[in-house]
Description:
- It contains five helices and four strands.
- It is mostly helical.
- Helix 2 (32-40) crosses helix 3 (54-62).
- The model is unreliable at 172-182 (pLDDT under 50).
Amino acid sequence: MLTALLVMTGLALLLGAVLGYASIKFKVEGDPLVEKIDAILPQTQCGQCGFPGCKPYAEAIAREEAEINQCPPGGDEGVRKLAELLGKDFKPLNAEHGTPKPKSVAIIDEPTCIGCTLCIQACPVDAILGAPKQMHTILAAECTGCELCVAPCPVDCISMIEIQPDISTWKWQYPIYQIKSV
C-alpha cells in the first residue's frame, strides 16, 4: 500500500513538472495591440458593433477588418483614443451601430417577473441572478447597461435606469473607499 502511494506521488510530481515545463516552453503570446485596443473599449459586451463582445471587436480592428467607429458605448472619446493608438484619422461614430447613451443599469420589477430565465441567457456578463420559475434580480455593480436583457423578457419587467453621476460614479476607475473618522 505504501509503495503504491509513493509510486502515485512520484508520477504526479513527474507529470506536474512536465506540464509546468510545457506551459512555459509552448506559451502562446497574445497580440499586444489587441490588448491595448481592448483596454480602450468600454467592456459592455453589448454587440452593437456587430461582434459578440469587445475582445472580438478589438481583434477585428487589429486585423483591419473593422472600422474604429462602431462602438456606441465608447462614443466619440473611444473613437479618438483608438485613432490615436492606431495612428488613424478620427471618424465620427457610425450611426448604423447606434448612438451613445448615458450610462444605465437594468432593473427588474421583481413582482412581475415570471422566472422564465430568458434574461439570464441574454446577459453577457452574468449580472442577473435567478432560477427557473423564481423571481430574478440584477447585480447592479455587474450590469454594463447593454440592454440585451430587455428584448427577450416576455412580460416587460426589465427597465433601464440612467445612472446619475455623483461622487461615487463620476469617471472613477476604482471604488471610492470612505474613511470613517474616529
